[in-house]
Design goal:
The structure is a single chain. It is built from eleven helices and 18 strands. With 399 residues, it is an alpha+beta fold. The structure holds FE2/S2 (inorganic) cluster and fe (ii) ion.
């Protein structure tokens, strides 16, 4: 089965996928193969992470002209560069000569050209081939035909996204227009990252995302969180094609998510009264979880390595005026969420192990797990062959 827009359906029991797409209240979770099967993972890597917009980091990590960074995506790895005019570029991280990676994945460089480590083919920061030893001056060699393969890249509120479909996914800002109204007052692009943890989890990336979208588990595993935010206070934003999420209230007397509910930072300058009393939890499909607090923004970026392994980079960003305060320590936010993160990862890793039982099967959802149903529906429609980043009106009804 192939969709209109060209995605093949995922190699998974499509009748089980259809059961996940039943209306909320009648649906069940995805079948265990969605979390375990390497063939499904390979399909997801190629399509969810390789044929649409995927987050590959922060613009602040490429602050200067000449900055270069290689990041893994489902479409191989990408080389990001900042050119002399401040423009951002993303290229397939593969040399046009014989395919050597231009920069090792996860590493950075700063120089005024891209130089392949194998035979030193040299490219401009904007991708044109400028030198290939023994070839560039050779008669008949057309250097302009051998520039780097460029992928659409966009910066959105300080996050860098790359479109591995090379343009078929449409405009990022168009797809996120409604989300922009939620995120813009927080000005994440103005904030400074002051805390960072990298977690290596033995769990499928979807288990981590599903866990993020419900607080049904909070009274059981998150005593610290429940002291500052009522677990039953969650409300959702209307469903969108490529993002989902909602918000939860802070308890009276609590200023933010910290162990005692006090903030040692500064309220974000663009927020109104209701935003100062709530935390928004947003998921930009497939790999960014944005948690908007009254005084800081926490970002989880998921990089799946295997069906049962996901790297999570978690950052905490604060306004410059908070960092300027004498003795400012981001630990009040970092410590709270590090405790909560580890509680979550422990639960998610246990789900991963539990789903590997030959007796495991897709269970029903509680009324408090409506956002999980939204997320599962997004994945299930993708499994049926509908590209997630296709504009809403172009989506076909589920089979
Ligand atoms: S593979 Fe890059 S210069 Fe040969
Ligand atoms: Fe949790």
């Amino acid at each position: 089965m192939t969709s209109q827009a060209g995605w093949p359906a995922a190699p998974i029991d499509q009748a089980a996928v259809a059961r996940s797409l039943r209306p909320f209240g009648a649906s069940v979770m995805l079948p265990p193969a969605a979390y375990l099967d390497p063939a499904v993972f390979a399909w997801e890597h190629r399509h969810f992470f390789g044929a649409g917009w995927t987050c590959v980091g922060f613009g602040s990590e490429l602050a200067q002209p000449g900055d270069q960074r290689a990041e893994p995506t489902g479409a191989g790895s990408v080389l990001l560069t900042r050119d002399d005019d401040g423009g951002l570029h993303a290229f397939a991280n593969t040399c046009r000569h014989r395919g050597h990676e231009l920069l090792e994945c996860g590493t950075t460089a700063r120089r005024n050209s891209v130089i392949c480590p194998y035979h030193s083919w040299t490219y401009a920061l904007s991708g044109e081939l400028s030198h290939a030893s023994g070839l560039t001056r050779r008669e008949g060699f057309n250097a302009s035909a051998w520039g780097l393969v460029e992928l659409p890249a966009a910066e959105w509120h300080g996050l860098i996204f790359v479109d591995g479909s090379r343009g078929q996914a449409g405009s990022l800002s168009g797809a996120l227009a409604a989300l922009d109204e939620v995120v813009a007052p927080y000005e994440p692009e103005r904030l400074v990252i002051a805390g960072r943890h990298t977690y290596d989890t033995a769990a499928n990336w979807k288990i981590l995302s599903e866990n993020y979208h419900e607080c049904y588990h909070c009274p059981v595993i998150h005593p610290e969180l429940c002291r500052v935010s009522p677990p039953k206070s969650a409300e959702n934003y209307p469903p969108q094609p490529a993002w989902l999420g909602g918000w939860m209230k802070l308890r009276d007397g609590m200023d933010t998510m910290s162990l005692d509910g006090t903030s040692l930072g500064v309220p974000l300058r663009g927020l109104d009264g209701s935003a100062l009393r709530a935390v928004s939890y947003l998921n930009i499909f497939p790999n960014v979880l944005l948690s908007l607090h009254p005084d800081y923004v926490m970002t989880h970026r998921l990089t799946p390595l295997a069906a049962d392994r996901t790297i999570i980079e978690c950052t905490w960003a604060f306004p410059p005026e908070a960092l300027a305060r004498p003795g400012f320590d981001p630990g009040y936010a970092v410590e709270f969420w590090d405790i909560t993160n580890r509680q979550d990862w422990g639960a998610c890793e246990s789900v991963q192990r539990g789903l590997a039982s030959p007796h495991a099967g897709p269970g029903p959802l509680s009324p408090e797990e409506d956002a999980v149903h939204e997320f599962v529906s997004m994945v299930a429609r993708g499994y049926q062959g509908q590209p997630v980043w296709t504009p809403h009106e172009a989506l076909q009804p589920p089979a």
